[in-house]
Design goal:
This protein is of the alpha/beta class and 352 residues long. 41% of the residues lie in helices and 17% in strands. A hairpin with a 4-residue loop joins strand 10 and strand 11. The structure holds zinc ion. The site of zinc ion has 4 residues, from loops.
Length: 352
């Protein structure tokens, strides 16, 4: 049954991709009409970034070895992962033999189910527990993502109708196809946990390449792992460190900064984050640590004063971090993060 469903999904994607393929451009140029752009970071190492402003797919990292491919994070849906595999053919015809989930969130692990049983899906023990327990679909962010898809589709249709530039229109059409596939794909979704787990550390060797999978402490979730290539001096950080602010719905806000301190001990030059573009400026880690400490302190103080979470979410003022995080437009922080901090302060979050 699962096989049939997957075959159906594959057929669906193939059909829609037929239209996309007609618009393909040479590799290395802006990938008009494609869902992913593969930014080469080192020999055989790519940061696969979703194209288009409305993309909700986040990023994967792709490590092409002598005989196989490792994919770090596999996206919001089986459909998005199928598209990734298809577009991967532009850079390699080697098989994906290993997937690594940086954490359990839907936008990083809901593609797991499309892989054959002999593909190793590696993640932290906690990531497995969460995916087994259905936690990725209980997330408020997942729910709002799913309910937002129809609106996104309508919006894209309107923008396509109004767009006169052919290249931009093609890009919007791809976004629409991905959104429609994601929508259809939710019915097929079967959150699939890692089949290989680790607690603190695991190293894969592929030819000359060393791939370390490291748990450095609780941060964005209780089970974030980073993928570290010591020779290439590259680290894939998932949502523990993105190019902007990460959501805090499952975070250990008070421990996050310490975990980032552990990250700093690794000898890397390039960060491939789970959202946003790759970067080399290590000072971004300091900025994010300062933000995390500030949000924790402010919200803790407000809670001590007896302020409700809703009110604290309005009052906490992080605008002084705006220079480094332009997304901060005005005072206030997302309620979901404040609620989490309140839970952490109340001691209702398991830390064992
Ligand atoms: Zn996440």
């Amino acid at each position: 049954m699962v096989r049939l469903t997957m075959a159906f999904t594959a057929a669906l994607i193939t059909l829609t991709l037929a239209g996309i393929q007609a618009q393909r451009q040479p590799a290395g140029t802006f990938h008009q009409g494609k869902a992913y752009r593969f930014n080469k970071v080192a020999d055989g190492v790519y940061h696969a970034v979703g194209t288009g402003a409305l993309s909700v797919v986040g990023n994967s990292s792709v490590i092409v070895n002598d005989n196989d491919v490792i994919v770090v994070d596999d996206h919001v849906s089986p459909a998005a992962a199928w598209v990734l595999l298809d577009e991967l053919k532009d850079i390699t015809n080697k098989p994906v033999r290993t997937v690594i989930n940086t954490h359990f969130h839907y936008d990083h692990a809901h593609g797991n189910q499309i892989f054959d049983k002999d593909v190793a899906i590696i993640g932290h023990e906690f990531t497995r527990q969460m995916l087994m327990g259905g936690k990725s679909i209980e997330m408020p962010l997942y729910k709002s993502y799913v309910t937002g898809i129809p609106r996104q589709i309508e919006d894209l249709k309107k923008r396509i109708a109004a767009e006169s530039d052919a290249a931009r229109k093609a890009n919007l059409q791809t976004q629409l196809q991905v959104a429609e596939n994601n929508s259809a794909s939710q019915a097929e979704l079967k959150p699939t946990p890692p089949n290989v787990t680790l607690q603190t550390r695991m190293t894969l060797y592929r030819g000359d390449r060393e791939i370390q999978i490291r748990f450095l402490g609780r941060a964005h979730t209780a089970g974030d792992v980073v993928v570290y290539l010591p020779k290439e001096k590259i680290v894939c950080t998932g949502d523990m460190l993105t190019s902007a602010l990460s959501n805090m719905s499952d975070a250990f806000v008070d421990e996050w900064s310490k975990t980032l301190e552990e990250l700093k001990k690794l000898d890397f030059v390039t960060v491939l984050p789970g959202h946003g573009d790759a970067f080399t400026d290590r000072a971004k880690i300091d900025y994010f640590q300062a933000y995390l400490r500030d949000v924790w302190d402010q919200v803790s103080r407000l809670k001590q004063q007896g302020v409700s979470a809703e009110e604290a979410a309005k009052r906490a003022d992080l605008t002084k971090h705006r220079e480094h995080f332009p997304g901060i437009q005005a005072p206030g922080v997302p309620l979901i993060g404040v609620t989490r901090i309140y839970e952490l302060l109340d001691g209702t979050v398991r830390r064992d």
